[in-house]
Every structure is written in structure tokens, then in C-alpha cells.
Specification:
Number of helices of chain B: 12
Shape of chain B: flat
Number of domains of chain B: 1
Oligomer: heterotrimer
CATH architecture of chain B: Up-down Bundle
Radius of gyration of chain B: 21 Å
Helix content of chain C: over 70%
Number of domains of chain C: 1
Number of strands of chain C: 2
Number of helices of chain C: 7
Largest sheet of chain B: none
Helix content of chain B: over 70%
Mean pLDDT of chain B: 91
Shape of chain C: globular
Strand content of chain C: 5-15%
CATH topology of chain B: Four Helix Bundle (Hemerythrin (Met), subunit A)
Mean pLDDT of chain C: 85
Number of strands of chain B: 0
Chain lengths: 82, 324, 224
């Protein structure tokens, strides 16, 4: 089976897109989990501040998620632009 | 090098069987080791309860072993299954089945060890709640086997799929991708479910009167932690049952393989992360029962947000399957 | 097994554009509407001081959800958004439960339903943000912390629609497929009722609640 250069490049781009999003999802998934676990702990210790703590958790998770969004952007670029 | 179809299929089946059992043994063994370690510690603390602790340990280990028993069943089937329709597709689906079951058993095996170990320690600490602890452990470990069961369902579907007259390329990649998607995604969810169950056994032992709330929080947390593996299963089923038009291009095959890999890897992290959230929530429901409602709500929101990367992975997989 | 992925669609062309209408989710959505209207009338009709069972369930749902919204948004905003949140939750709850009845299926199984509800929540959250903070402050928040992060902030915001709607879709669709495949493998004995209870009732309730809570959270992030 002869593989053409264009075909090979496209195959690499698709595989790259899959790996980029797949591997990129691992870190944020665990990191955001840690943030939420600590938020649960904090609310358990100090339930009066539940609203503030939830908001802090959400902001922290949004920041932790940004690397996941970078992966998504790279995956979509590989899929549609390159 | 030209292989005849029968040789290729047999080779794939044997490799798949070896992978299924080899990888499948990792999780259960570590989980059981964890349980035994904690049981030993528990007996050192309260040697007059040794009988109860050993009984609990054996029950727990028997359940965490079930993931590797699934692997054993799949491996034996792969070794002795007759292949009436040998070919590239049959080979790919048997190899995919092996991958799926092998990876899928890791998380549930390790995960099921956590509640078993924690409940042994709990019996040493609070002998009076021994029966309730064992029940709680049984529920928790049973639920964290779910991802391994998903993996077994996909492996069985792959093994008994009849290739018929479908062209080999690119469907071979879809079959291996289907195995990878459920298999890898099950690792995270299985381990995550185990973390939640472990925390609930610890909590019941500390505060026996909160057992009902703790078990409910654990079940909700585990159900949400299973979402990534449900996504993995969804992608697997699409890859299994969608008819792909024949194409000799490498990129079409690699795209389908990448779809499975993307969802599988992408489900791994969020599964563990969701488990951590559930663990934290369950632990603090036991310590601070008045705020169980608040904690449950924060847990659900936290888990939902930490799942979002798994959802991006699912979207990229769907794009790889349907658009590109 | 043949039922997998089958859709009843109407395809028609207006001015050269192809339009596709998925029939099943539409019909199922109308069934949910009907059930909700019947429930609403039964709960609010002839209100008594000693509530009957239907009135009790209705009051329970409404008080709980109003309480949740008030905690997250504050009393002033809660008065505006609570009815919406309440309606969203009971609609999703009933939609996710519909699949356990034979011959009916969840409207949320079609991506269009969660996607449109996600868009609805997104638009309302941003409208609330603009109304609360003024357009200038709202607009400026996209250029924080540094101005060139604007595209990423924008994508991050749009990704919320994707995550909220695909979460619901993936869970309900995944559950439906698992039930179908397992029923096929075990010839529909013994296991399917338990699976229906788990995926239909339990996961359906949790996902309806998660979707509603996230909509509240998105609104609260915008107005604070």
C-alpha cells in the first residue's frame, strides 16, 4: 500500500488532534477535582462562608480549565485549519 | 509479508488475550494488596477483632478481584474462541476486545481495594458497626465495578461482532478505537468510584449515626464519577455500529483510531478528579452532617465543572467520527 | 439492535435551503409539556390549607428550588430568575424520566434539546450580566487579565454551552444505548428494569439537577 505525503500529513494531524485533547483533558480533570475536593473540605469546616467558597472554587476551576481549553483550541486547529 | 487470514486472526486473538489478562491483573492485585495492608494494620490495632477483620478483608478482596476475573473470562474466550470468519476485521475486533478489557479492569480493581481497606481499619476502630460497615463496603465496591462491566460488555460485543462483507479499511481502526475508548475511560471512573466508597467507609466508622447520609452522598458521587466512562461507552458504540464507507486513505483509519484514543484518555483524568470531589464531600458529610445539603450541592457543581474536559474530548471524538 | 440510531425525520426545502425536522423529540417534548400542564393545574387548582398530595409535591419542588436560587443569587435576583430555574428543572426531570415508559423516549436524547436549553441559559446569564454590570464592565471582563487573552476568554465562555449541553446529552444517550444493548444481550429479562431505574430515574434526576444548578451558577458568575 503506497501512502501519499498529503494523506500521511492529514493522518498525523488527526492523530495529533485526538492525542492533544485526550492527554490535555487528564490534567485539568484531576486538578479541578482537587479544587472541588478542597472546597468541600472548606465548606465542611466553615459552612457560613459556603457562597464565597463556592465562588472561589468556580474561579479556581475556570483557571485550571484554561489548559484544557488550550488543548481544545489546538485540537480544533489541527482538525480544521492545518 | 503476507499473512493468511487465519494466522493473522489467531495472532491477534492471542495477543489480545495476553493483554487482557496482563493489564487486568494490575488493578485487582494492587487493590487487594492495599486491602491486605490495611487489614494487617487493623489487626495490629485491635487484635481481639482479628476474625471479623479477616472476614471483612476476604469479602472485600473477593469483590475487587471480580475485575480481574472478567479479564480472565475474556482472555480464555479469546484463546479458545473458534474464528469461522477470519480476516483483518476479525483480528482487529479481537485485539480491540483484549485492549478494552485489559485497560478497563485496572481502575475498578484498584478502586474496589480502597473501601475494603478503609472498612478493615473501621472495624478495628468501631467494632460495634462492623455489620453496617461491611454492607456499606459491599454497595460501594459493587458500584465501582460498573466501569469494568462496561468494558466487558464492549469486549463481548467486539468479540462476537460478525464482520460480514464490510471492507477492512477504515473499519479496523474503528474497532480498535472502540476498545480503547471504553477501556481507557473506565480506568478513571473505576478508581474515582473507589475513592468515594473508601471515604464513605471511613466516615461510617467515625460517625455511625450519619451512615444513611454518607451512603447516599457516596452513591450520587459515584454515579456522577461514572459519567466519563458512560461517554467512553457512547463513543465505543458509535464506532462499533456506524457503517463507515470504504476508503484506502490512511487518514480515515487514523482519524477513527484517534477518536477512540481521545475519548479514552480524556475520560481518564476527569474520572479520577470526580472521585476526589466525591471523596472530599463524603468525608465532610460524615464530620459535619448539618451541612450535608450544601456539601452535596457543591460536590455536584464541582464534579460537573471538572467533567468539562471529558466533554471537550467527547466533542473532538464526535468531530473526528462524523465531520472529518 | 436495529433501533439504534434510527430517526424519524421530515426533510423539506424552502428557497433552496434544506430543513430537517426530527419528529420524535418534538412529539416527546409536547408530551412533557402536556404532563407538566396537567401537573401544574392539579397542584395549583383548589389550593387548600391542608395540602393534598399533588399540591404538596408542587410546593416542595417550588420552595426547594426558590431556596437554592436565592442562596446563589441573592433575594433581589432570585425573584426574577427563580420561576425560570423552577421550570427548567421540572421540565428536565420529566424529560429524563419519560424514557422509562415503553414506546416513549427522552426528548433530551436528541442533542437539539439540551443544546437549545444550554443556549437559553447562556443568553440569559449574559443578559443578566450586562443588565447588572453595564455593558462597559461586562465587555472589559473579556480583556482580563491581559488583553490578548480575549480570544481564549471568548472560547472559554462558549465552551460552557458545549459542556453543559453535551453532558446531559451524553448521559441520557449513553444510558439509553446501554439499556438497549444489555436488553439485547440478555434477551430482555431481569436486568433491564434495574438499568432503567438506575439510568432513567437516578442518573436522570442527578443530571437534571446538575444542569439546573450550572445554569444558576452561570448566572451568578455573570452578575457578581
Amino acid at each position: 500500500m503506497a501512502i501519499e505525503g498529503v494523506d500521511l500529513v492529514k493522518a498525523a494531524a488527526l492523530l495529533g488532534a485526538g492525542l492533544s485533547m485526550g492527554l490535555g483533558a487528564i490534567g485539568p480533570g484531576i486538578g479541578e477535582g482537587m479544587a472541588a475536593a478542597k472546597a468541600c473540605e472548606a465548606i465542611g469546616r466553615n459552612p457560613k462562608e459556603a457562597g464565597l467558597l463556592t465562588r472561589t472554587m468556580l474561579v479556581g476551576q475556570a483557571v485550571a480549565e484554561s489548559t484544557g481549553i488550550y488543548s481544545l483550541v489546538i485540537a480544533l486547529l489541527l482538525l480544521f485549519v492545518v | 509479508m503476507d499473512l493468511d487470514p487465519q494466522t493473522l486472526t489467531k495472532a491477534a486473538a492471542f495477543t489480545g488475550g495476553a493483554i487482557a489478562m496482563g493489564l487486568g491483573a494490575i488493578g485487582a492485585a494492587s487493590g487487594e494488596g492495599y486491602t491486605a495492608g490495611h487489614a494487617t494494620e487493623a489487626i495490629a490495632r485491635a487484635n481481639d477483632r482479628a476474625g471479623d477483620i479477616i472476614k471483612n478483608m476476604l469479602v472485600g478482596q473477593a469483590i475487587s478481584e471480580s475485575a480481574s476475573i472478567f479479564s480472565l473470562v475474556i482472555a480464555i474466550l479469546l484463546l479458545f474462541l473458534s474464528t469461522p470468519e477470519p480476516g483483518v476485521l476479525k483480528a482487529a475486533s479481537l485485539f480491540g476486545a483484549g485492549l478494552c478489557m485489559g485497560f478497563g479492569a485496572i481502575g475498578s480493581g484498584v478502586g474496589a481495594g480502597l473501601p475494603a481497606g478503609k472498612s478493615c481499619i473501621g472495624i478495628a476502630r468501631q467494632p460495634a458497626v462492623g455489620g453496617r460497615l461491611t454492607t456499606n463496603m459491599l454497595i460501594g465496591t459493587a458500584v465501582c465495578q460498573t466501569p469494568a462491566i462496561f468494558a466487558m460488555v464492549v469486549a463481548l460485543l467486539l468479540m462476537f461482532k460478525e464482520p460480514g462483507t464490510t471492507a477492512a479499511s477504515p473499519t479496523w481502526a474503528a474497532l480498535i478505537g472502540a476498545g480503547l475508548s471504553t477501556g481507557l475511560a473506565a480506568i478513571g471512573s473505576g478508581y474515582g468510584g473507589g475513592m468515594a466508597a473508601g471515604a464513605s467507609c471511613e466516615g461510617v466508622a467515625r460517625q455511625p449515626d450519619t451512615a444513611a447520609s454518607v451512603t447516599t452522598t457516596m452513591l450520587v458521587g459515584q454515579a456522577v464519577s461514572q459519567t466519563p466512562s458512560v461517554f467512553g461507552l457512547l463513543i465505543s458504540f458509535i464506532l462499533l455500529f456506524k457503517a463507515f464507507p470504504e476508503s484506502a486513505a490512511l487518514s480515515d483509519s487514523v482519524g477513527l483510531l484517534a477518536a477512540g484514543l481521545c475519548m479514552g484518555l480524556g475520560g481518564l483524568g476527569p474520572g479520577i478528579g470526580n472521585g476526589m470531589v466525591a471523596e472530599g464531600a463524603v468525608r465532610w458529610v460524615a464530620r459535619n452532617i448539618e451541612n450535608a445539603g450544601d456539601l452535596m450541592r457543591v460536590m455536584l457543581v464541582g464534579q460537573a465543572v471538572s467533567q468539562s474536559t471529558a466533554i471537550y474530548a467527547m466533542v473532538v471524538s464526535l468531530v473526528l467520527i462524523f465531520v472529518v | 439492535m436495529e433501533g439504534l440510531g434510527r430517526l424519524h425525520q421530515i426533510v423539506f426545502t424552502i428557497a433552496g435551503q434544506r430543513f430537517v425536522v426530527n419528529l420524535e423529540p418534538l412529539v416527546m417534548t409536547w408530551i412533557v409539556f402536556g404532563l407538566l400542564i396537567i401537573f401544574g393545574i392539579a397542584a395549583a387548582h383548589k389550593k387548600k390549607r391542608l395540602p393534598g398530595p399533588v399540591q404538596l409535591v408542587g410546593e416542595l419542588v417550588v420552595t426547594q428550588l426558590y431556596g437554592l436560587t436565592e442562596e446563589a443569587l441573592g433575594a433581589r435576583h432570585a425573584r426574577v430568575y427563580s420561576p425560570l430555574i423552577c421550570a427548567l428543572f421540572i421540565f428536565l426531570l420529566l424529560s429524563n424520566w419519560l424514557g422509562i415508559l415503553p414506546h416513549l423516549e427522552e426528548p433530551t436524547r436528541d442533542l437539539n434539546t439540551p443544546l437549545s436549553l444550554g443556549l437559553l441559559g447562556f443568553v440569559i446569564a449574559h443578559y443578566a450580566g450586562i443588565r447588572e454590570k453595564g455593558f462597559k464592565t461586562y465587555f472589559k471582563s473579556y480583556f482580563e487579565p491581559v488583553f490578548f487573552l480575549m480570544p481564549l476568554n471568548l472560547i472559554g465562555e462558549l465552551a460552557k454551552i458545549v459542556s453543559i449541553s453535551f453532558r446531559l446529552f451524553g448521559n441520557i444517550m449513553g444510558g439509553a444505548i446501554i439499556i438497549l444493548v444489555v436488553s439485547h444481550l440478555t434477551y430482555s429479562i431481569l436486568l433491564p428494569p434495574f438499568l432503567n431505574a438506575f439510568f432513567g430515574l437516578f442518573v436522570g434526576t442527578i443530571q437534571a439537577f446538575v444542569f439546573t444548578m450550572l445554569t444558576v451558577v452561570y448566572i451568578s458568575v455573570q452578575i457578581k
